[in-house]
Amino acid sequence: AWSTTAGGAAVLRALDAENGTTRLVGGAVRDALLDLPVTDVDLATALSPAEVTKRLEAAGIQVVPTGIAHGTVTAVTPDLIIEVTTLRRDVSTDGRRATVKYTADWREDAARRDFTINALYARLPGGDIDDWFGGLLDLHEGRVRFIGEPLQRIAEDHLRILRFFRFHSRFGRGAPDAEGLAACAARANDLMALSRERIRDELFRILVLPRAAETLALMLALGILKPVLPEIVPECVPHLAALAGREAAWGVDPDPIRRFAALLPQREGLGAEFGARLRLSRRDTARLDALGVADPALPGDPFTAAYFRGVDVARDRLLLLGEDARAAWEALADWRKPAMPVSGKDIIARGISAGPEVSRRLQRFERDWVASGCPLDAARIDDLLAAALA
Ligand code: ATP
Ligand code: MG
């Protein structure tokens, strides 16, 4: 359907898709064949990046040279973003990145892709499929199979270990391909050579999938994560499964940090420990800390958590806690942070001289007031203020 959008059609026309010079490839073909929504669109083309750029610009389409060294040009249209990559083959690899050469041979371009289901090309507008490695049958039968020899393909790019489990989680039916699985298990240590960011991104993509718990259990049984995250053990998986079940039942979208928190042993300082190791953003690190149910900075009371850490974090904590927390989770749905009814001026008016003592007293009042459920009637506020000044 994307090719009928104005942007898609214009790009296809400019790149001569009708003659097969440019074809749809990868995830978009696979997902369309399964009637799944297509999110990002990749095109493979026999044209050089310079020719692609020239033709798109001549058609008035905005072009960004995203990965020009790797042959990728991005076409930005009003309705979607399309990556256009010139046919290439890998000439050398070191497990992390490949040196590529352009080629005129479609099959060579297909052969450097990871799995057979990811190496299908669709000619548009007709929709004829090029399938050199049996990807259509594999897709139909729910099989994620490496193109070529799995051990060699993993040696070329270690990230394929994690991609194998991610695609199996999404598209696999029944037991995973035995040869691929054995190769992933044998080469798990290779993951250590990858950047933490790449491991994290791939792992987080697995974590938000519907079958994440099942896939994690499989990975842990084979020792896939041991070199990178030894603290995640099979006993952690039921927590992830339970969280995923509650998310579905309570109508919450899966979130990688929340799911990761469910998988970790519950102890203080999760953010500090894993944030640095997985190069999490500052915000994700803070969230992971706050989601550690054992976080000592937060009392168990959900309203206090909502007040000091934000309502989303508070609700995530409850979601992680379990079924018993559902009432409190629902009670927080419409919660708004109330404004403090007392300021430094009120403290000073009661005889505390200006200085650090004022903010100490104010903080004490705030803590007690929040713990009492943020009452707004004057008498209660007065009592709490008197206690804070005692
Ligand atoms: P998703 O829906 O997750 O985006 P996708 O198949 O589009 O799935 P991408 O990571 O976007 O996956 O990559 C696009 C295509 O590029 C893949 O379908 C595959 O053909 C190829 N590809 C991506 N990463 C690799 C890799 N590490 N090794 C070989 N081929 C790869
Ligand atoms: Mg994609």
TrEMBL record:
Coiled coil: none annotated. This is Poly(A) polymerase. Gene3D superfamilies: Beta Polymerase, domain 2, cca-adding enzyme, domain 2. One of its GO terms (molecular function) is metal ion binding. Pfam families: PolyA_pol, PolyA_pol_RNAbd. Belongs to the tRNA nucleotidyltransferase/poly(A) polymerase family. The lineage of its organism: Bacteria, Pseudomonadati, Pseudomonadota, Alphaproteobacteria, Sphingomonadales. It is an enzyme of class 2 (transferase). Keywords: Magnesium, Metal-binding, Nucleotide-binding, Nucleotidyltransferase, RNA-binding, Transferase, tRNA processing. It comes from the Bacteria. GO terms for biological process: tRNA processing. CDD domains: NT_ClassII-CCAase. Residues 23-145 form the Poly A polymerase head domain. Its EC number is 2.7.7.19. Residues 181-232 form the tRNA nucleotidyltransferase/poly(A) polymerase RNA and SrmB- binding domain. Its cofactor is Mg(2+).
